[in-house]
Amino acid sequence: MLNNIGLPGLLLIAVVVLVLFGRGKISSLMGEVGKGITAFKKGVKDGTQEIEDASKEARDVTPESEKDKA
C-alpha cells in the first residue's frame, strides 16, 4: 500500500503536518522525542552495566554434597 508513495507524496504530507501543527509545536515535539531516545539509551546502558556487575558478584551457593554429583 505504501510502496508507491514517492518524494512528492512525502513532501505533501510534511507540508500538511506543518500547516496543521505549526513549526513551534513540531519543534517541541521533536525535542521531546530526542529526550525520550536519550533516556532510553541511558536506561539500557545502566541496565546492562547492572547485570554485568551482578554477574561479577555472583557466587556459588550449591551445597558441597550437590557439587560432587555434577
TrEMBL record:
The keyword Signal does not apply. Pfam families: TatA_B_E. GO terms for biological process: protein transport by the Tat complex. Keywords: Cell membrane, Membrane, Protein transport, Translocation, Transmembrane, Transmembrane helix, Transport. It comes from the Bacteria. It is found in: Cell membrane. The chain crosses the membrane at residues 6-22. It is a single-pass membrane protein. One of its GO terms (cellular component) is TAT protein transport complex. InterPro entries: TatA/B/E, TatA/E. One of its GO terms (molecular function) is protein transmembrane transporter activity. Residues 45-70 are annotated as: Disordered. The Tat system comprises two distinct complexes: a TatABC complex, containing multiple copies of TatA, TatB and TatC subunits, and a separate TatA complex, containing only TatA subunits. Substrates initially bind to the TatABC complex, which probably triggers association of the separate TatA complex to form the active translocon. Part of the twin-arginine translocation (Tat) system that transports large folded proteins containing a characteristic twin-arginine motif in their signal peptide across membranes. TatA could form the protein-conducting channel of the Tat system. NCBIfam families: tatAE (TIGR01411). Belongs to the TatA/E family. HAMAP family: TatA_E. This is Sec-independent protein translocase protein TatA. It comes from Pseudothioclava arenosa. The gene is tatA.
